[in-house]
Amino acid sequence: MSDDTILQTTGLTKEFKGFAAVQDVNLKVQRGHIHALIGPNGAGKTTVFNLLTRFLEPTAGSIRFNGVDITNEAPAQIARRGIVRSFQISATFPHLTVLENVRVALQRKLGTSFHFWRSESSLNVLRDRAVELLESVDLGGYIDSVTLELPYGRKRALEIATTLALEPELMLLDEPTQGMGHEDVGRVVELIRKVSKGRTILMVEHNLSVVESLSNVITVLQRGSVLAEGPYAVVSEDPRVLEAYVGVAA
Fold first, then answer.
1. What is the pLDDT of residue 120?
2. Helices 152-165 & 182-195, crossing angle to 10 degrees?
3. Treating both helix axes as pointing N-terminal to C-terminal, what angle do 127-136 and 98-110 enclose, rounded to 10 degrees?
4. Cβ(154)–Cβ(182) below 8 Å
């Protein structure tokens, strides 16, 4: 594993009662890149994410992060190493304010994450950093808004802010633009480009214009296996990808 490789999987496999949802996936993510994982529904993309974060246990294969084998580590330990994930469904607290959501994520640094009996004033020290993070994702004007009332695209931006609060070295973004209108997609694309500076992003994304705009490298999955890999210009012209991904035989 070279110094430029932040994440590498070797022979990564997940079987469910004999069915291989992911089979022999060799993935190499370069430090500082935006790496996209694409493929048709059922290709195994989210399963790969679940394996990387140990929501699922691999049947076979290994995962290395910064040269360290993390295959058998617990999800919390993987997160502490700097691998932080977002989900397809926005994972925020709907009845807290935007500021409170980010402040909860920042509590981990204080070691008070589960000290629910402490006064809320003990969290005031986190306000400045929370505001800074919200401004970085263009939510500075929504600080006191209740999260439930935010437009969908802004909720996704908030989720990215809470992810950034954990200071990830590698961000795993699962369908960051799913269900968005054109205007929100454009906003989130620019946001991902902005927050990618100084960190690495691995994302699952169906919107090919987003993939083309953001990605350095694309890995295409089909039926749980790697079908093709490379920059968008190469992968998008691959006849196997056209047939598997968009149903067009070249």
1. 57
2. 10
3. 120
4. no
| DSSP string over 200-235 | EEEEE---HHHHHHH-SEEEEEETTEEEEEE-HHHH
For the record, the structure tokens of 242 come out as: 């056209």
CA-based diameter of the chain, in Å? Answer: 64
Tokens 């992060």 locate to 65
Q: Which domains does the chain have, with CATH numbers?
A: 1-82+168-250 (3.40.50.300), 94-167 (no CATH)
Separation between Cα atoms, residue 131 and residue 179, nearest integer Å: 27
Paired residues of 34 in beta bridges: 201
What's the pLDDT at 143? 94
Q: Per-residue pLDDT tens for 104-149?
A: 888 865 554 445 445 555 566 788 899 999 999 999 999 999 999 9
Measured between alpha carbons, how far is 38 from 204 in angstroms, rounded to an integer?
A: 6
Contact criterion met (CB below 8 Å) for 38 and 218: yes
Name the DSSP letter for residue 44.
S
Q: CB neighbours of 20 closer than 8 A, spacing ≥ 6? A: 13, 14, 224
* pTM higher than the cut 0.85: yes
**Which one, of 57, 29, 79, lies nearest residue 204 by Cα?**
29
**Distinct helix (H) and strand (E) counts, the chain:** 9, 10
3-state helix, strand, coil in the chain (%, to 5): 40, 25, 35
